[in-house]
Amino acid sequence: MPALCFKEVLFPGFKVLLDPQMASMYTKEEIRALQDQTRAFLKEGTNLPATPEALESLRNVLRFHEHRYYVQNDPLLADTEYDHLYKMLEAVEKDQPDWVTPDSPTQRVGKSLNGNFKTVQHLVPMLSLDNSYNSDDLKDFDRKVLQLSKKNAVTYCVEPKFDGGSISLIYENDLLVRGATRGNGVEGDEITTNIRQIRTVPLSATFSRYGIQQIEIRGEVLINKNNFKKYNEELAEKGQAPLANPRNAAAGTLRIKDPAEVRRRNLEAFVYHISDYTLLPGRELPEPLQTHEGSLKLLWELGFRSPVKELRTFERIEDVIDYCLEFEEGRDGLPYEIDGMVIKVNAIDMQEQLGMTSHHPRWAIAFKFKARQATSKLLEVKFQVGRTGSVTPVAKIEPVFIGGVTVSSISLFNEEVIREKNLKIGDTVLVERAGDVIPYIVKSMEDLRDGNETEIHFPKVCPVCSSELFKEAEEAVWRCINIECPAQVVERMIHFVSKDALDIRGFGEANVRKFYELGWLKDIPGIYKLDFEKLGALEGFGKKSIDNLQQAIERSKTQPLHRIIFGLGIRFVGETTAKVLAANISHLLELQTFSQEALQGLEDIGPKVAGSIVHFFSNTSNIEMIRELETLGVQLTNTHKQLDIAGALAGQTFLFTGTLPTLKRSEAEAMAEAQGGKIVGGVSAKLNYLVVGEDAGSKLEKAKKINTVKIITEADFLKMVQ
Questions:
Q1: 681 φ, ψ to 5°?
Q2: Which of 14-18, 302-306, 477-481, 493-497 has the least mean pLDDT?
Q3: Alpha helices per DSSP H over 274-392
């Protein structure tokens, strides 16, 4: 069986592996007509004819563009143009409230929910699936299906098992009338208002075309990995604890009382099963509902996201097994979390023949991927002090093997995480590690407590220097504000010698800590006062390694000024901001004279960053350290400043995001600068080109909303350079 190309299967923008007729719920003629209507409405400006017919035409245009954007990931309209049409619709509906329809795009947003969610009964119980963990289990499932069905061969459908929050949707007379959580399988919480915030769930669908009057659909609500990362970054900027994982975040979001917050989290829904339906009087069973594959294609045609792109059919269980194993191997490259594959008998009449137990259907089984979770015991919590004084609690657990690595230490981020998860020393905890993401504690197993557990007390003073800790009102992080704190001193030196700062090779973290403990290194200037004769007495330091280290230290004295600025470890000042600062000064100490307002006038420097720079250069200890570095021979003037480079990219601004196919980001930035291009720190109207690699996140989404920003690939960029 050929290797599976996951980019073609699940990544937006790649070829859809479907029959061409399945590519859209709209025909080519309908698309052209809707595009013509779109241009006509945009040309009208705000002068929409105030008639119910014109209003419905506008709604149809907006529904079409929502489907292209949220379901097919292939928009035909700029965001600003969509917003303009949406506001036109809002304005007319406000003036003519009697013309508002339940499935209007404006009716997604509802009022905040009050009190508890109403409990509703599913039309058909949402049973669990039987699980398999190896090929033998799948072969046994195949044997039982053949035996019970009395067939020699069965066609199976195989699709991803999405890992989010399960939902049930009911449509009546083509309108969405109810959305509910899975609950206990028989009853769930009625969450229709929140479901309406999910753009991939149509508010109406023409089931009546197929003779269907009422239908119940099952699905899974997810958060795209990039959206999840973006949302956690926003929480971090506010000093709030991050969400644990996309699965828990999606399921938890469904029960939030504020629909506006649900909308902000950008949930998506995949529907994967039609559980019940009622036909219109006199209508016969439509052909698509006679197979599982046909039902998913029907849902796709009606505007839902169903896994038709990922769906495969096989008659041999060996081929099913191969497909499952291929998907497991590539799971980390997918834009969504999946925890397995689902195998279903394709023929609906055979599903009915096979029936179900009280727990699971006999015609389906889940092939579960290798566990990314494990339980362990929380032994202790240590508190580490970082370069900027942040105090981070770190859980020490009994070593446990998860996702290919042994985990024994886990960051708990801040005090609020400890409180929210109600962690205690001695707890049995559930630990998760997804792909290459750092491990985290999902929850404590409170039911397993025996009374010997102890509370975790967050320190009131620095665990290293005993200075009183401080926390800003808008942050969740406690900090040691003693700049002479030994832990901060060591972390600042480690940062100063690092590859992206002064790049002193051979002077890594281990050596910084060793020299500090021996008393040979006390601060950053001490790096340039190191007694190399003493190093010969240490194991592993021969003449050649000492000579190499001495030469690396000497070379670092002539590093470009932006590297020195970055190496100082000023809070919020990254590599790009350091380059901006260096480009606007001739000597490092000139930054003493910059006010916060002047700094904010520089490219991509906001109030928070500007305030941090002013604070750093108003500290006399920092100024004394900088002067001592200069005395020791470190070049603090901008000898590398090049104001106008004549090159292919002169005058153009660039930003790189995601993983590039062949270049490291630092290499790409250097290539752009060598040709006169400038690197900026964020997406704004000042950006000319956003170079996008794999797993591009929030920068790409923001760039799409700015018409002047050109989004290009690495290949496009290399052509420009050449």
A1: -90, -15
A2: 14-18
A3: 292-301, 317-329, 348-354
Nearest to 381 by CA among 414, 335, 420, 340: 414
Question: Which range is least confidently modeled, 18-27, 348-357, 521-530?
Answer: 18-27
Instruction: Please give the annotated binding residues for NAD(+), written as ranges.
Output: 79-83, 128-129, 159, 182, 220, 344, 368
Please state whether 185 falls in left (phi above 0), alpha (psi between -120 and 50) or beta: left
Q: For the chain, how are helix, strand and coil distributed in percent, rounded to 5?
A: 40, 20, 40
Rounded-to-integer distance, Cα 542 and Cα 269, Å = 61
Are 274 and 124 a contacting pair, CB within 8 Å?
Answer: no
Per-residue pLDDT of 571-629, as tens digits, reads 889 888 998 899 889 999 999 999 999 999 887 788 989 999 999 999 898 999 999 99
Coil, strand or helix: which one is 128?
Answer: coil
Which residue intervals of 271-347 are DSSP H helices?
Answer: 292-301, 317-329
Among residues 686, 696, 1, 29, which one has the least CA distance to residue 314? Answer: 1
161 counts as catalytic: yes
Helices (H), 520-574: 532-535, 543-556, 561-567
pLDDT digits (tens, 9 = 90+) for 214-231: 999 999 999 988 888 888
Amino acid at 521: L
Strand order in the sheet with 391-402: 405-411, 391-402, 373-385, 428-432, 440-444
**Quick one: pLDDT at residue 406?**
82
> CB–CB of 515/531 below 8 Å?
no
Q: Which amino acid is at 664?
A: K
* Residue the block writes with tokens 């250097």: 670
d(CA 421, CA 198): 28
Provide long-range contacts, Cβ within 8 A and 24+ apart, for 28-36: 31/64, 34/60, 34/61, 34/64, 35/76
Which residue in 379, 571, 383 sits closest to 461, CA to CA? 383
- Tokens for 619, please give them: 């500290």
Q: What average pLDDT score do residues 97-124 get?
A: 75
What DSSP designation does 160 have?
Answer: E
Please enumerate, by residue number, every residue annotated as part of a binding site: 79-83, 128-129, 159, 182, 220, 344, 368, 462, 465, 485
Q: Which two tokens stand for residue 543?
A: 């003449």
pLDDT, tens digit (0-9, with 9 covering 90-100), for 154-182: 999 999 999 888 999 999 999 999 999 98
| Spatial separation of the C-alpha atoms in residues 687 and 682, rounded to whole Å | 8
Contact 157, 332 (CB under 8 A): no
Q: Which of 161, 225, 297, 424 is catalytic?
A: 161
Phi and psi, residue 230, nearest 5°: -60, -45
Distance of CA 374 to the CA centre of its chain: 23
The one-letter amino acid at 498: S
Query: How far apart, in whole angstroms, are the C-alpha atoms of residue 538 and residue 545?
Result: 11
523 phi and psi angles, rounded to 5 deg: -160, 180
Binding residues for Zn(2+): 462, 465, 485
Q: Answer for the pair 313, 346: CB distance below 8 angstroms, yes or no.
A: yes
| pTM check: above 0.70 | no
Q: What is the structure's pLDDT at 358?
A: 66
Residue 268 · residue 280 · CB < 8 Å: no
Beta-carbon contacts of 624 under 8 Å, excluding residues fewer than 6 positions away, are none
Give the integer Cα–Cα distance in Å for 440 and 428: 14
Residue 122, class by beta-carbon neighbours within 10 Å (0-12 exposed, 13-18 middle, 19+ buried)? buried
